[in-house]
Amino acid sequence: MALTDDELQTYRGQLSCGFKDIDEFFPHCMEEATQLLSPQGVKEYLDGASLICMIGRGVGPVLSYLEEMPALAARLGEPTLALVSQAVWRMSRTPNGAAIPPFLQSIGEVARRLGSEELLRGYIDTVFELMERTTGSIHGFQKTIPSPGLPDFLEQAPALLRALSCAGVKNWIEYGIRNYGNHPERQRDYFSLQSADSRAVLQRERHGTLFMDHERSLGLYLRALWNDHDHLVPYSSAFDELRKPMPYYDGYGIRVPDVYDDKDGIRGLDRYRVLLAHIAGHRRWTQPIFADNYSPFQRLAIEHFEDARIDRLLMARYPGLRPLLLALHPRPDEHDCDAERESCIRHRLAMFSYAVLNSQHGYENPDLLEFLGRFNELLAGGEHSTKEVAGLAVSYIARTRRQEDQSPKIYFKDTEVDYRDDNRHMWRFIEEGDEEEMFEEKAKRQISDEEQQGLPPRHYREWDYNTKTYRPDWVSLYETLHPSGDAARIDRLLAKHEALAKQLKRILDLLKPQQFVRIRYQEEGSELDLDVAIRSLIDFRAGTQPDPRINMSHRHDGRDIAVLLLLDLSASLADIPEGCEQTILELSQEAVSLLGLAIDGLGDDFAIAGFSSNTRHEVHYQHIKGFSEEWNETVKGRLAAMEAGYSTRMGAALRHAAHYLGSRKSDKKLLLVLTDGEPSDIDVHDPQLLIQDARKAVQELDQEGIYTYCINLDPHADEYVQDIFGKQYAVIDRVERLPERLPQLFMSLTK
Questions:
Q1: SS in 3 state form for 656-687?
Q2: Domain topology for 487-510+559-749
Q3: What is the DSSP letter of 436?
Q4: What is the CA radius of gyration of the chain?
Q5: 3-state SS class at 217
Q6: What angle (nearest 5°) sits at the alpha carbon of residue 581, between those of residues 576 and 585?
Q7: What is the rounded average pLDDT for all residues in the chain?
Q8: Could you report the per-residue pLDDT of 310-364, keeping only the tens digit for each?
Q9: Which residues in 135-170 are b (16+ Cβ under 10 Å) and which e?
Q10: What are residue 477's DSSP bridge partners?
């Protein structure tokens, strides 16, 4: 239905843009927008166009946005309206304004190839990463030279996405940046697909069956065989390498990978069909059950048993699926997992799942055979449900569970069935906060609380030694004030080391600064030096040349030092070293207490902070003592409440400590790092990655005039600590001597 003139005038009034060229195309654009978008979507559409008009790039970008966005938002969701307009606004604030027209002209076709809002966000993030890493600067301070290859990439983006998966496009871009980042002309040739190297890398990354090439046929397959009309939404692991997403379905559609390679003789297209059949089986035959009364091990077993039940039902309905399921399901070897040294729970469940599909499995384990018979009897009865299978799975896990199943070393080989979804649809929760398996959600809520109580997250780059480049805004660091505890505990620790404290006090008296010292024999000064003046007067009257240096001045003899003690609070601090009766954390509290007392006596500018990490998304930085705080009961209470947990992502913590230490107006700035191991985190599998990043952070601090010194409690630290800190470290082999050695090291560094 056509819009009336009054409606068009109303909408034109909402568009804050004075270009007359828009008026010719505006009615057609608004008719499409009102048909495809909600009233709120139309408002956001016009707001986005108004924002783009404000960037001062002429009428072209505005027209491109008005023409492309209604269909794009109708396909991927109305949040993409603001996503695209904000991206254009961000790009306009950089020297890359010339890239805005090709970005908007190609965004419609790019969105059609990507097929989901999630992938469009990932694509835009990739565009900005390319822009950031190829935009030049003058003297390294301010980005002033536009990216040579960005406009060419944006023009080629639809063609690239027709040939490659999202991961392939990212790899293709990474190769171009790494090899031609400093060669503008060759960079343009690469990103415009003109160079032989560019086309060769394109062919190398070209593999598999792309979902978007078969979206229609797969949708028809789902409808024809399963009478399921749900929307298929692609995802890519290229934009979420940490979590490695799995297929799943929810109220917004069925999530499937954007590409499948051929595997074990099965074509990628057939792998899509098996995946959709398995999900359709769940949607038809799986009934949700409550998870609150099941342990994580029990839930894992229930999911495997239910997946096996669905696969059996699929084979009964369509026998042609049997060879595909058997080929794609891994066959675990019965004797591969060493139950004395590692957790074999996933191995046992994968064996059971395979045995359900293949009667010629060849397994001999009596427990497995018994429960396989009970499972077959249940399915042969005709009437069976998810709840009955859950009861059988719980019995199986209770019968076969071993103490070694608690081991952190888990056997994974041939246990992952990649055509199965993540089974989130199976579970309902009465109280999510009490569920062990909801750890990730609890962690997110905890971060939210910290954001409310503390500061917003700060993002830091991280060095990738493989590519010799920084990953921009890679780490999210949350800083909070450390909670308080019993300050009397620190007083008891100081009383325990009373003799050592007295010895330190005697040394401190020698280090304490004298307020002023005289500097004699000055031609100009603040006072007359009477002894020298009288001697000069005698020389003058005797007819000899008098000494003109008859004045003296004063110099302040104070210690102008700022010190920040950065404590590693990772989980390993809860360990008790060999030969000790206390944990490393307790010894650290004693040592830091003595050091705090010592520095308080000297009057140096002093702060204490602790850090730990739980992946790059959660680096925790906790303030224990600020530079402006006195050594008092409040600080002692925070020190007494220190706890060990998580991992050791040191580079981000070093950079954040430098943020505070670098602002101090002191002649000497010292960052003391107390740690018991090498940098590590659960989302990093290359041990050198975080070591090299910490090394790079130390170099950055050195350039800022901050002297970094590491006190390491790991007897094997010599293998890595020199790579990070050079010669600026000490290894304390006997950890029990830490309370004595830490203050001594500080004094030797600050004499």
A1: HHHHHHCCCCCCEEEEEEEECCCCECCCCCCH
A2: Rossmann fold (3.40.50)
A3: G
A4: 34
A5: helix
A6: 50
A7: 85
A8: 999 999 999 999 999 999 999 999 888 888 888 898 999 999 999 999 999 989 8
A9: beeeeeeebeebbbbbbbbbbbbbebbeebbbbbbb
A10: 458, 619
